[in-house]
Amino acid sequence: MVPSVTAIGVAADRDQVFAGPMELRRKRAYDTVAADDGFRVLVDRLWPRGVSKERAAIDLWAKETAPSAELRHEWHAAPASEWGVFADRYRAQLAGESADALQKLAGLLRQHPVVTLVYAAHDPVHNHAVVLEEAMRKLQDA
User: Fold this and answer.
1) So where are the chain's domains?
2) Among 29, 22, 19, 4, CA closest to 105
3) Taking the CB of the first residue and of the last residue of the chain, which one, N or C, has fewer CB atoms within 10 A?
4) DSSP letter at 79?
């Protein structure tokens, strides 16, 4: 079983989220796992279709920080031109209802020098992992 942020239950210190520099990356769940991926975090609410747990090599499943089911459904039905609207709504979710989960995730990740955010979306530019990475970097720089 892949642990989740809630299952691990580490509380993040809101004043010092990251202890040192951390390299944060993004990678599709369908791409080959590499030794230099570091700590691999699945950031989707649903497990990637057709990918075994062994092949995914996920260290943590952060589904609590993924877009809500409602937001995910809306994005999948929207044209790419609506990316900005989705990104803004997801940022609002991360600042609101998912803020505690984001802080817990940040607390867990601060001990890893390299972290790869793993996602299933086909588009490497217009997906929630981009927004989540942005939010994590803001916490890291704070």
Assistant:
1) 5-141
2) 4
3) N
4) -
Q: Which pLDDT tens digit goes with each residue over 87-127?
A: 999 999 999 999 999 999 998 998 999 999 999 999 999 99
Kindly tell me if the per-residue pLDDT of 20 is higher than 60: no
Q: How many other CB atoms are found less than 10 A from the CB of residue 40?
A: 23
**What's the CA gap between 84 and 126, in Å, rounded?**
9
- Cβ atoms of 58 and 41 within 8 Å: the answer is yes
- Cα–Cα distance between 9 and 11 in angstroms, integer? 6
Q: How far apart (Å, rounded) are the C-alpha atoms in residues 65 and 51?
A: 20
Which neighbouring-strand residues pair with 39? Answer: 115
Instruction: Say if CB 116 and CB 133 are below 8 A apart.
Output: no
**End-to-end CA gap in the chain:** 33
